[in-house]
Amino acid sequence: MNDKKTKSSSSFPAFAGDDVSIEELREKYLSELVRLSGLSRDDARKKLLKELDQDLDNEKARRVAEAEEQTRQTADNRAKDILISAMEHAATDYVAEYTVSVVKLPSEEFKGKIIGKEGRNIRALERATGVEFDLDESPNEIRLSSFDPVRRYIARLALERLIKDGRIQPERIEAAVATAKEDAAREIRKEGEQTAVEAGLGGLPSGIIELLGRFRFRTSYGQNLAKHSLEVAKLGAFMAAELGLDVELTKTACLLHDIGKVSSGAAEEGHARLTRKILERFNFPERLVNAAAAHHGDEEKKSAEAELVAMADAISGARPGARYEDFEGYVKRIENLEKIAKSFSGVEDAYAISAGREVRVIVKPEEISDEAAAGLAHDISVQVGREVVTPGGVKVIVIRESRFEETT
What we know:
The protein is mainly α. It folds into 4 domains: 2-48, no CATH class; 100-188, Ribosomal Protein S8, Chain: A, domain 1 (2-Layer Sandwich), CATH 3.30.1370; 216-317, Hypothetical protein af1432; 331-399, ANL, C-terminal domain (GMP Synthetase, Chain A, domain 3, 2-Layer Sandwich). It contains 16 helices and 8 strands. The longest helix is centred in the first third of the chain and has 49 residues, at 41-89.
């Protein structure tokens, strides 16, 4: 009696050892399920299939999760290998660049010549170059201070030429500055061609070469823009090659991603938007334009190459010691000061000096009288106070100079 009860309450019998086919084994399990559960054959079949489906779903989910985890781990390791290799291939030494240049003097007596009678020479230099000349730092040195490295370069060339000539007077100062501007234009062109060669990109439009040349004289958070862009190009090209993407497109977009920074209007419009406008003007393909212009998220990234440009830019900028945070805000503030001054009618030029604590405004004497010059200084200072946040006040100096020449 007890044996019979035990047999009727047992689970499915073990048929695995029997020499039967899978079909026969399934039929035996089904018959046993019908006998033990009291269900009809159809109900038992449905129950068995449901349990089998559930077991299969659970097994599939487990295996998919394991495969996903293994794939994720492999992808992470592969991504780390690619990034590390790219950074090793594109390693570049950085020295943060500041806003001061130094010119050595043969002797201290040259300071008197540079100042001139009643300071007319030093005023002519600052007016022609837009650079502040500091003669008090060292007996045999002059510090040239300006947020614009191209201006500092022109001022240094002009001053070195004047020192070599020895004759320093307003007329010669103007001629020396004009010559220095021509030399700077040639140097910018040369630097642009050299940057393109180092990046391995040929056939770039002449206008793009000119803008690339200005990279040499531009910094971003203290990081030289030419070196930064070349490093980004190397990083992007290496990663694109490893991932089987368009290497040429990625490299070009990486090199040109900050080209908006050397265009006027970058402070108020944003360099990424200007980058798009510049590249569209030179008829670059939309895929490349998007890859270059989307590196800060100003627009949607529409390709894997665009993601690589953003990654390469972030890697280069995050390099320890490559950047310091205050420089970009400082440059934008100085540019805004000059832009406000130049927006007034009758203004010929304007230069912000002394780290933005002073703005010198040169007006057209035939349009602005002495009385109007005083009012203009007030109007500019009021607008600067409203639109620009500066540490301390900003002194606005309006310069009105009349010249009269006759030839016998």
